[in-house]
């Protein structure tokens, strides 16, 4: 899937979409905003129709775009957790508005 171009439309919305565009990114961000810290399996369970490949890709892109942190614990069995970082938390007001709009306008 082609990622949004930062220069598309020459506006700040283009930048936002280039970082957090796509169906799954917003849903993962929303799940993390509600649950604070989640493991991969918990995220997958909360989004049953996402494939493992897509979830791995989305988590990687969100980390690359500096919206979430991945915490690796040096233990056996391995443990990895994901959480919003400060930059990711700055999207919570947008996520809240999206959720409210959806609740009010959902058929």
UniProtKB/TrEMBL annotation:
Residues 11-107 form the HTH hxlR-type domain. SUPFAM superfamilies: Winged helix' DNA-binding domain (SSF46785). InterPro entries: HTH_HxlR (IPR002577), WH-like_DNA-bd_sf (IPR036388), WH_DNA-bd_sf (IPR036390). Keywords: DNA-binding, Transcription, Transcription regulation. It comes from the Bacteria. Pfam families: HxlR. The keyword Transcription applies. Coiled coil: none annotated. PANTHER family: TRANSCRIPTIONAL REGULATOR, TRANSCRIPTIONAL REGULATOR, MARR FAMILY. This is Winged helix-turn-helix transcriptional regulator. It comes from Sporolactobacillus shoreicorticis.
């Amino acid at each position: 899937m082609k990622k949004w171009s930062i220069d598309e439309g020459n506006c700040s919305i283009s930048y936002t979409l280039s970082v957090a565009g796509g169906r799954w990114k917003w849903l993962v961000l929303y799940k993390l905003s509600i649950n604070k810290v989640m493991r991969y399996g918990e995220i997958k369970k909360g989004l049953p129709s996402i494939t493992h490949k897509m979830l791995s890709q989305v988590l990687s892109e969100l980390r690359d775009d500096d919206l979430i942190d991945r915490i690796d614990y040096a233990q056996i069995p391995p443990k990895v957790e994901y959480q919003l970082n400060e930059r990711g938390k700055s999207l919570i007001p947008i996520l809240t508005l999206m959720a409210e709009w959806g609740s009010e306008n959902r058929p």
